[in-house]
């Protein structure tokens, strides 16, 4: 079953490392996920200042705004999609993720399955 | 999908007592075995209900089979296989589930001697999974392991049936959709996961012991359900000392049930209870378990609470109770599981050991605890100590505060009685 791990990084420093973990931790984790053969996809997101929001009104008019800006301490910093047997295994991988430490959190969400 | 307890539908007016008894005893075991076999809680639940319905029709005519549990299991399994034949999509989905479950964990050997293998432990851990809302874990445990119907579970937790049905349906959807597994955590995970299971069982007990609202203080059948579940856990996890501790704690508290209320259903405090009405065999069983809970490693919170309960039942009266030892145990408990409620109980024990002044000083330190703000035992305990110190006006004030917070009729009656002892004008006016 596929699960998405949404990584809400805590306060991130200039090198992309949060409290309690550094870039080396992330590289080690990424390597583990790949070598375990469970990786479906995964990306880390560029700095939030580069984000742009698009909304389309009922009349079809498009609104483009700068941001969002971080209003809460936790912002989506990246994700993994992994394919594992059940929630317990997914939770284990989430717990090992450096993003779960240093005030960050990882939200685990099953990917919806549609009968083909 | 609605939560419909089809099992007893329409047969309530003339239920076969035998089927009922067998069903209560076998339900959890049957359901767990079916979940294990088919990997799907909904399917297991439906065919369990169908098997019970079939028993209600057949047994009064054909007689009760020699092994009722095995009969129910065979019937339920047949219904499940039939359903899977008819529903190829479901079958395909379950096949995938099964393959993945096998990949995750080797299947255990089938039970010897034709006995149903007991797979309830998996179900305990699923129902109390940390990914489920804490308030739903006790409800699921009652529903699936104690075999209560949804309306019964709703009554147990004092919520409308519709509300409980929604909660159970939502929890089931999470179990199914997020694929919470049916598995026993391995030895490494057990210390993290077992407290959740114990908490679910204990929440059933405390709900039964002091209902959070309504006229009756004790709902004994719920407390007994919790004890029954703890006995099952004790058989399934004999090496876990905290399981022994939980069972001991509940037995030692429940043994005092008959003495806890007076002839008018009024709540009696420990010093007012007729100790001759305590259930001695139950106390003996509980006392036997306390050393099991406390030896062989560092104690857990349930073991320590059981030890405190043991000191209470072993004393002839309040005066000869070993208060220094009780205070010492509360210190251990506070270190293991810090909580303002434990601190409150410790303060009351200190008052017994060192006098009301010392207890009151500790209670006043807890005045700003948000968790105690809506907790009527806090102002009630202050009232008791102030009363003993002769500060009657302040005591009356504290009792009035407690009365405003207390839920059950008997608790309120007790507080009114205490308020009267302050001799303050208008004490009974609530």
Write the layout of secondary structure elements.
The complex is a heterodimer of chains A (116) and B (430).
Chain A: E1 2-9, H1 23-35, E2 39-44, E3 52-56, E4 62-66, E5 75-83, H2 87-96, E6 105-110
Antiparallel strand pairs in A: 1-5, 1-6, 2-5, 3-4
Chain B: H1 17-38, H2 41-62, H3 68-86, H4 88-104, H5 120-127, H6 134-144, H7 150-156, H8 161-177, H9 190-209, H10 220-236, H11 241-254, H12 257-260, H13 280-294, H14 301-314, H15 323-336, H16 340-354, H17 356-365, H18 377-388, H19 392-405, H20 409-421
Number of domains of chain B: 4
Determine the strand fraction of chain A and express it as a percent band: 25-35%
The CATH architecture term of chain A is: 2-Layer Sandwich
Q: Write down the CATH topology of chain A.
A: Alpha-Beta Plaits
Helix/strand structural class of chain A: alpha+beta
What Rg of chain A is obtained from the alpha carbons, in whole angstroms? 16 Å
Q: How large a portion of the residues of chain B is in β-strands, by DSSP E?
A: under 5%
- Elements of chain B, N to C (H/E): HHHHHHHHHHHHHHHHHHHH
Whole-number mean pLDDT of chain A: 86
What's the short story on this structure?
The complex is a heterodimer of chains A (116) and B (430). With 116 residues, chain A is of the alpha+beta class. Chain A contains 2 helices and 6 strands.
Structure description:
The complex is a heterodimer of chains A (116) and B (430). Chain A has 116 residues and is α+β, with helices and mostly antiparallel strands. In chain A, 20% of the residues lie in helices and 34% in strands. Chain A has two helices and six strands, in the order E-H-E-E-E-E-H-E. In chain A, strands 2-5-1-6 form a four-stranded antiparallel β-sheet, with helices on one face. Chain A has a two-stranded antiparallel ribbon with strand order 3-4. In chain A, strand 3 (52-56) and strand 4 form a beta hairpin. The mean pLDDT of chain A is 86. Chain B is elongated. Chain B folds into four domains: 1-105, Rna Polymerase Sigma Factor, Chain: A (Orthogonal Bundle), CATH 1.10.1740; 121-238, no CATH class; 239-338, no CATH class; 339-425, Serine Threonine Protein Phosphatase 5, Tetratricopeptide repeat (Alpha Horseshoe), CATH 1.25.40. The A-B interface holds A 1, 85-89, 91, 108, 110, 115 and B 89, 100-101, 103-104, 129, 131, 177-181, 183, 185.
